[in-house]
Amino acid sequence: MIKKYYLLSPGPTPVPEQALSVAAEPIIHHRTPEFSAIFMEVIEGLKYVFETKEDVFILTSSGSGAMETAVINTLNAGDKVITINGGKFGERWGKICRAYGIEVKEIMLEWGDLFTKEQLADELKSNPGIKAVFATLSETSSGTVYDIQGYGEVVAQTEAILAVDGISGLGATPCPMDDWKVDIMTAGSQKSFMIPPGLAYIAFSPKAWNLVEKSTLPKFYFDAKAYKKNLEKKTTPWTPAVSLIIQQKKSLDIIRSIGLEKLFEHHRILGDTTRAGAKAIGLELLSKNPGNILTAIKVPAGIDGVKLVKTMQGKYMAYIAGGQDPYKGKIFRIAHLGYMGGFDIITALSALEMTLSELGYEFEHGGSLKAAEAVLKENWE
Ligand SMILES: *Cc1c(COP(=O)(O)O)cnc(C)c1O
Asked: Which pLDDT band, with edges at 50, 70 and 90, does 176 fall under?
C-alpha cells in the first residue's frame, strides 16, 4: 500500500497548494519596489487577522522569537511580572523572563484548568508594581483557551501591560487585539497562518510602545525600534525570508477571501466534530475549556499512550501529537488548525480507532466516525 502522510499536528500545519507552489518561484531582491509592494500587502493582511490598527512586524524566527521580542523590548532587569503557566507555552514566558533577570511571579495551573479574570485581579492587587502580565490565548500543550478578553479588562485598569502568546490561537479563535485591550500580540507562521515554519509576527499597543521607549534590556536583532523605523520605509532591518513572505501573501489572500468570522466558525465545526468523535467512543478531554484549535484527549486506562502515538504516526502515518512533559503517554492531541477540512478529522479518528482496537481498548467500532459525520453533516454548507 502507498502510505500517505497525514499532518494532523498543532504546528507545523498543512499548507494550501497555492502557497506551496509560489515557494518554487525565482527569488526576487528584497530592496525593490516589487518586493515592498508584496511586503506591505502582507502587513495589511496581518493587521486584519490581528484585528489591530497598530503596525505588525515580521520577524525571521519561529514563534518563540516573537515571545522573546515582547520581553526584551518592554522590560528592564529586576522588573516584576506575572506569567500564567497552564502548560508548556505559558511556562516558556517565565523561562524567557528569567533568562533576562526579570522577577517572575508564576501562576502555576494544572494543565487544562482555568484562570479567571477575578483571580488575575486578585494577583495584581496582592503583587503591587507588576509591569507586565504574560498570558496564552490557546495553550497548545493542553488544548485550553483562556479568557484574554477578561484579562484585558483587568490589566487595562493598571499600569501593567498584557502580552499574549497568540501563536496557535490567532486566526482560529477570536482575539481582537485592539478591542480586547491586548498590549502585545504574538503569532507564528506555521499555525493558523497556513504557511511553513519560519516567520513570527508581533504588534505593540501605544501603552506597550511607552515601555519600549524606556526599556534597557539588551537587544539587537529583535530591536522593535529598528523594525518600526524600517517599516516606515516599507522594509525590514535585516534580509527578510523572501519566499516565506510571498507564501504568506498567498495564504493571507485565502484567509481574507474566507473572512475571519467564517474561519472561526470553520474551526468551531472541526472542534465540535473532534470532540463528538472522541466522546462517542468513551474518551475524555483533558481541558476544562477546550479550544477549537486542537483537542487534547486522555489516554484511556490500561492503554500505552506512547505506543498509541507511535502506532498512529509510524504505522498509519497519521501525525497527531503526543503529550509533553508530565503528560507524555497520558494524552494525545489531534489538531484542527491551518489548512484542514472536515475529512481530515475523519482520517484522524479512523486511524485512532484502528490503533485503539489494536492496543486492546474496547469500544463500539465506527462510533467516533458516526458521531463525527453527524456533526459535519449538520454543519455542512
Ligand atoms: C507553537 C507555539 C509556540 C512557539 O513555538 P515555536 O516552536 O517557537 O514556533 C508558542 N506558543 C504556542 C501556544 C504555540 O503553539
From this structure: very high
